[in-house]
Each structure stands twice: as structure tokens, then as C-alpha cells.
Design goal:
19 helices; globular; 444 residues; mainly alpha; single chain
């Protein structure tokens, strides 16, 4: 081994000598810890209680209890607002997923994106020009990607455009959109409707055309257009198409021995009785507005026969039927009876002419039936339509009694009509019945 350096040993010894004769200085700021006296048992319990209070005060539950104890009303309102906000957020998310996204699940994403923007400017922030722009873009994209122009989805978009025009009172443009859609659909039916593989599609497109024609009849008869002749033409076409198609399907089912389910599988589902009745009722109202009650009566009767259940609309139909019956001439009443029996609007009337008294008695019977049906209905089935129907039917019974010369019965009915109309806030009914009652009393 090599020897240590010459200066290494003397330096270590010198350092040891310095440490032995000069100890580390003591810090003057460090004081010895004073001994703590042991607390008494009472002090221990008090300290433990204070510690528990501090722990409780530091928790969320403790803070909430203390805050509620000081401000019970404010805390309750705040909690209610928070819960309401949370529920609203959850419900909004549910609506978005259920009604917004689900409504467009049949559309490709590119088309659905445009339609969502269009509906936003239709239902949320009404801006017709922006909505129309996005509807057009949606239809253009649908055409580019090859969607069927006569599918329910695309026809539905065009019908929605027409509805938007109607909502902003652009009735002429609304009619124009429906005219184009109806003409295109009828052309498709003429060219391809009879093909074997298009049976189901033919039924669906034809039903759409009927609905479009009924809507056109309504729009042509509106105050902005008021073209009664065209309105009647569209409604007559709709009713004739409905009846012809029903007859065709009945004949086909009988000739081939098909059940209703088999017929629907082969030809597709046709319009329900309620939908057929609605088209008949629309034409009846058109005739009624033109005082052609002998044409309106059988249509109201057929619509009533097709109505599925007794509800408030049944009350309206019965009352309309009663009104039409009472406003016919005896000769027209014979025609109405022939139509009602045959259920064919093209059949010529025959048989004896009924008397005016019989006609008014029939009207009274239907008006009273309307009141009886309304009396059987309870909420929620009974609604405002029932109340209005009762007021009008009671007034009509007064007029029918007046026609028959029964003044006392007429006064009674007019008084009841005034009470019913006033109770439901139907001011027009109050005015009409009051005026008839004043004239009747003045004639005494």
C-alpha cells in the first residue's frame, strides 16, 4: 500500500483539536419547551366536544343544515330552482333525442342536417326566407343522392313547405306548392301506378293525393283566394277517388277471397274510415257554405257513419247534419234521403217528396242526439268542441221550434243557449241567441 500524503494527517488532527476546544455555539432564540400540565377530565370532554363541532361544521351536510336553519325559505327556493333546472336540462336532452333526432332518422345525414336548420327557422325562430332556403337545399341534396321523390319523407318535406307558406298567409304560394306536388304524383300514377311491383306504392301515393286535394279545397275556399268552384272541384275529386278506391278494393277482396290483412299486404293499407270521413265532411262543408244543403246532408251522414267512436266531433257532425236538414226545400230533402240511403253521391233521387214538417222533425232528432252524446262524455274526452257543439245545437233546437210555430219551446231553448254560450265564453253564440230571443218576444 502507498503511504498517505504528508499533509493529510496533520490537517485531520488540527481539525479534531479545534472541535474539541471550541464546542458548537448555542442558539439564543431557541428556548426549552415548557412542560404542559395534564388536562382535567372535564377539560378533555369540552375539547372533544369542540373538536366534534369543528368537524361537523366543516362537512357539507353540517353547513347545509346550518344554512337552512338560518334561511329556510331562501334555501328551499334555491334547492327547488336547482332541481327544476336539472329536470329541464334532462327533459330538453330527452326531447332532442326523441323528437329532433328521431324525427329525421329516415333521412340521410346530409339531408337531415339541412332539415334541422329549416325547422329551426320554421318553429323556433320564424324566418320564412331562411327556412325556404334550407328546405330547397335539403330537397336538392336528396335529389343528388337519389332519394325517391315520391317517398313519404320527400313528399312530407314539400307539404311542410306549403304549411309554412300558409302559416305566413302566403296562400297562393301554398297552393302552388301543393299543385306541383299533386300534378307530379298523378303523372307518376298514370305512368307507373299499374305496374305489378308498384301496387303498395300506388296506394300510398294515391292516398297522399287525396289528402292534398282536400287541403287544396280548404285553401281555395279561404278568404284570401275564395275560389269556390276550384275548391269544389278538388273536393269532389277527392271524394270520388276515395269511394272508387274503396269499391275497387272491396271487389278485389271478394273476387280473390282475401282477408283484410292479405289485401293490405298485397295492395298496401288504404285510408282509414276516419280519414275517409274527413274528406266527405270537407266537401259537405263546402256545399253548406254555398247553401247547397241537399248535397251537404248525405255527405255529413256518411261521414258520421264512418266516424269510429262517439266523441266531441260526433256532436259537431250531428249538429251539422241537423242544420243541413232544416235548411232544405222539400224537394231537396227527397234528394238528400235518396243519397243517404244509397250512399252514392251520383245516384238520381226518386220516391215521394217528404214534407217540410218531417224534415224539421228529423233535424230536431239529430240536434237532440248531439246533446245526448255530449252529455255522456266526461273529461278528458269532453273538450271545448263539445261545449261549442252544445251551444249551437241548443240554439238550433230553438230555431227548429220556431219553424214549427212552438214559440214557448223556442224561447226556452234560446234562453238555454244563452246560458251555455255565456258559461263557455262563446260571445257570438250569446249575441245570436239573444237577438233571436228579442225578435221572438217582440213578435208577441
Amino acid at each position: 500500500m502507498s503511504a498517505p500524503p504528508a499533509l493529510a494527517l496533520p490537517l485531520r488532527q488540527a481539525a479534531r483539536h479545534i472541535l474539541q476546544h471550541h464546542p458548537r455555539p448555542r442558539c439564543l432564540h431557541t428556548l426549552p419547551r415548557r412542560p404542559q400540565p395534564k388536562p382535567s377530565p372535564t377539560q378533555c370532554l369540552r375539547q372533544q366536544h369542540q373538536h366534534q363541532q369543528r368537524r361537523r361544521a366543516g362537512t357539507f351536510t353540517g353547513n347545509a343544515r346550518a344554512l337552512f336553519a338560518k334561511h329556510p325559505l331562501q334555501v328551499t327556493l334555491a334547492v327547488g330552482a336547482i332541481l327544476a333546472g336539472t329536470a329541464a336540462l334532462a327533459y330538453s336532452n330527452y326531447l332532442y333525442r326523441t323528437y329532433i333526432l328521431a324525427a329525421f332518422h329516415n333521412y340521410p345525414d346530409a339531408v337531415a342536417k339541412k332539415l334541422r336548420r329549416a325547422l329551426y327557422y320554421t318553429n323556433t325562430d320564424l324566418q320564412p326566407q331562411e327556412a325556404i332556403k334550407y328546405y330547397r337545399q335539403a330537397l336538392q341534396v336528396a335529389e343528388e343522392i337519389g332519394m325517391d321523390p315520391f317517398s313519404d319523407e320527400i313528399m312530407g318535406v314539400k307539404i311542410q313547405v306549403s304549411k309554412l307558406m300558409e302559416d305566413v298567409r302566403q296562400i297562393a304560394k301554398a297552393i302552388q306548392v301543393l299543385e306541383i306536388l299533386r300534378n307530379d304524383s298523378l303523372e307518376w300514377l298514370r305512368r307507373y301506378g299499374d305496374l305489378e311491383h308498384n301496387k303498395v306504392k300506388r296506394t300510398r301515393v294515391l292516398a297522399k293525393c287525396v289528402g292534398i286535394a282536400v287541403k287544396q279545397g280548404e285553401l281555395y275556399g279561404s278568404a284570401e283566394i275564395y275560389d269556390r268552384d276550384v275548391a269544389e272541384e278538388r273536393l269532389v275529386w277527392a271524394v270520388e277517388t276515395v269511394l272508387k278506391e274503396r269499391q275497387r278494393r272491396n271487389t278485389l277482396r271478394a273476387s280473390q277471397g282475401l282477408s283484410e290483412a292479405q289485401l293490405q299486404e298485397q295492395e298496401g293499407p288504404w285510408m282509414t274510415d276516419s280519414e275517409v270521413g274527413a274528406s266527405l265532411e270537407a266537401l259537405a262543408q263546402n256545399y253548406e257554405a254555398k247553401d247547397q244543403h241537399y248535397l251537404a246532408t248525405p255527405l255529413f251522414l256518411q261521414a258520421l257513419a264512418l266516424h269510429p267512436t262517439k266523441n266531441c266531433h260526433t256532436v259537431v257532425l250531428m249538429n251539422n247534419l241537423a242544420s243541413s236538414l232544416a235548411q232544405q226545400s222539400p224537394r231537396a230533402a227527397r234528394a238528400a234521403q235518396a243519397y243517404a240511403v244509397s250512399r252514392n253521391i251520383d245516384e238520381r233521387p226518386s220516391g215521394p217528396i217528404v214534407t217540410r214538417e218531417t224534415m224539421i222533425q228529423n233535424a230536431q232528432t239529430w240536434a237532440q242526439k248531439a246533446l245526448d252524446v255530449a252529455a255522456e262524455l266526461q273529461p278528458p274526452e269532453r273538450d271545448e268542441e263539445c261545449d261549442l257543439g252544445c251551444a249551437v245545437a241548443t240554439h238550433n233546437l230553438g230555431e227548429f221550434a220556431e219553424m214549427m210555430g212552438n214559440v214557448g219551446e223556442a224561447q226556452k231553448r234560446y234562453g238555454e243557449a244563452i246560458s251555455v254560450a255565456r258559461a263557455i265564453g262563446f260571445q257570438e253564440g250569446v249575441d245570436n241567441s239573444s237577438e233571436r230571443l228579442r225578435k221572438l218576444k217582440g213578435g208577441d
